[in-house]
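Subject: Protein entry, chain in single-letter code together with its fold tokens

Area: Proteins and the way their chains fold up in space.

Attached in line: The record itself begins immediately under this heading.
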Amino acid sequence: MNLTNAEGRAIVYSTNEIPTVAGKVSRETPLADLNLNWREKDLPERERTKHVHRLHPYLGKFIPQLVEVFLRKYFKPGETVLDPFAGSSTTLVQAQELGIHSIGYDISAFNVLLGSVKTARYDLPELRREVDDVLEKTAKTIEKKPSSQLSLWDAGTGVRSETGDEYLKTWFAPQALSELLTYLSFVNRENYRYANVLKVILSRSARSSRLTTHFDLDFPKKPQREPYHCYKHSRICQPTSDALQFLKRYSRDTLRRIEEFSICQTDAGVRLVHADSRNVAFPPIQGVITSPPYVGLIDYHAQHEYAYHLLGLDDNRGLEIGPAVNGSSQKAKSSYQDDITSVFRHALESMPKGGRLIIVANDKSNLYEKIGEALGIEVEAIVQRHVNRRTGRRSGEFFESIFIWQKR
């Protein structure tokens, strides 16, 4: 159903009772026929996190089927889509599935690492050999000498098993930290072709082996060093003391997911850049699909703090747009609007007339109307999507808006 607001701008509400199947959308599919209010039975978790989309936990990402719908409707194979807030690279992965070239930018070094691993092409036998090799070397080193006896450098292997990093010593039990650092030492010294994959496996394992409760992996506030009542498992659980179990588990899972994605990968180009999208000139593109950071909600660097400390990544959290640490005051909102406007203005300069900016946002503060006015775009539609399948500590219902803007 096409409606207009008081200013005469088009709004599309999803009114079709039958949920949209992303793979059946085409350029001819009317917006009013889309029902993006998927329930769990319509779009189960295993499909929302297919292949590499669940290579590593990431807060605040949008689901691949939502991206697929708009890629199919507004882009052709061989065209180029931009995501100036690449995040976990959902847009880039889905574009690669559909033969659409993609370019992503992100201020977070970890996000760029993760996205590059998701979208790379691999010699699968060689990848498996390297994953198995570093795991075997780590396990043998740990078995040979208990973690309590490992020195800063093991003279026999050159393995680093201790650290002066206070964050790591605070959030990991000695054995877990020793195992993680042992694995990292082999990654750094063996000159593996796919070292970035191994770093993602390490990061995912570190997330699970922190001293935190099983039900609070997303938002840990302090280390958990004593037994506790676990709301997730409904029993008394012990803090995690080792990491090798997770290194083994995620090695297998990572290989499986990369192999699954390799089947549906096309030869579409992918470019991922570690940069501040406010200060770059984007190359030519046909349009944008993105989910910008929400003001005052998530500190994107902080959610992967362990990875920054383990891997020694550049920390640019001071350059994040709308970080939670700055709150959601009127000043923070105004700064957010200015920053988002700057990014999209650069994007418009690189796209043809009629090209589209497709923006997924939980705009409960009504910030995007002013952003659109500042950009001078044509509002083609605003699709309201009911999100009602979140689980666990993030359970609850909310709405997000999908702004479809055209360059005049």
Notes: Residues 179 and 249 are 14 Å apart (CA to CA).
